Amino acid sequence: MLCCMPGVAFVPALLVSWSSAAFIISYVIAVLAGHVEPLVPYISDTGTKPPESGVFGFMINISALLAAITMYIRYLLIEKQNESSHFVRSSCNMFTLCIGLMGCTGMGIVATFQELAVPSVHDIGALVAFGSGVVYITLQSIISYKSCPRWNTYFVCHIRMAISVISCIAFIPMIVFASKISMTKIDWTPGEKDYTYHFMSAICEWTVAFGFIFFFLTFIRDFQGFSLRISTEIHED
């Protein structure tokens, strides 16, 4: 079904489907194995111990690659639209792409360095991934408004901005509550020390993560009318 989509719409569709599956599959395996409590664990908690750690690491790395490809195509799409409309500076478009790629790098760090094995590196990767991701979708929302009404509808722009605002609002308490947790563990139970901070931070983390997924879902329509062509030139001496 993905291959039958017009243009390159299958790329964000694959990103959304794969990333959602990565979160859900890792969560289900971790819960069934008894490694985490079912009630709102951290996303990273569901990919810390084997066998779910292998699934989590593999699938999140693929998600990071798909996200990078999606962001690059989005960059090319805006550059092409900008040739006739001139609604955004090319430098701004490039800056947005760089921020997005930083987020993808952070995702790769999170997937590679497990939470309990190298917590400091893992936390830095998570901060870069979520922080850069929030900035990226906010900048993309602003660019979307600038491209109206020729390249986007105001309805889609409102949806993107709403997702961006919710993600920004959730990102701040996610960091604040996480900073108040005094221990690194994955098997949290209600009533123990710092559980409330963990619970609130985890809710915010899932909100931001699925905010990214829903945001990329809005790219599918834009990508339907855009196709990539690879041209080769042969020079003879």
Secondary structure elements and pairings:
Elements: H1 10-32, H2 52-85, H3 90-112, H4 119-146, H5 154-179, H6 195-217, H7 219-224
Helix pairs in contact: 1-2, 1-6, 2-3, 3-4, 4-5, 4-6, 5-6
Transmembrane segments: 7-33, 53-73, 94-112, 124-143, 155-177, 197-220
Keywords: Membrane, Transmembrane, Transmembrane helix
Domain CWH43-like N-terminal: 8-225
Q: Could you list the spans in which at least 5 consecutive residues all have pLDDT below 50?
A: 231-237
Largest sheet: none
Helix content: 55-70%
Helix count equals 7
Q: Please give the radius of gyration in angstroms.
A: 19 Å
Proportion of residues in β-strands: under 5%
Number of strands: 0
What is the terminal separation in angstroms? 46 Å
Shape: elongated
- Integer tally of domains: 1
Series of H and E elements: HHHHHHH
- Return the structural class: mainly alpha
What is the typical, i.e. mean, pLDDT? 91
Structural account:
- One of its GO terms (biological process) is regulation of autophagy.
- Pfam families: Frag1.
- This is DRAM1 protein.
- One of its GO terms (cellular component) is endomembrane system.
- By secondary structure, the protein is mainly alpha-helical.
- The chain has one domain (9-222).
- Helices cover 69% and strands 0% of the residues.
- The chain has helices spanning 10-32, 52-85, 90-112, 119-146, 154-179, 195-217, 219-224.
- Helix 2 runs antiparallel to helix 3 (90-112), helix 3 packs antiparallel against helix 4 (119-146) and helix 4 (119-146) runs antiparallel to helix 5.
- The chain starts with 9 loop residues before the first helix and ends in a 13-residue tail after the last helix.
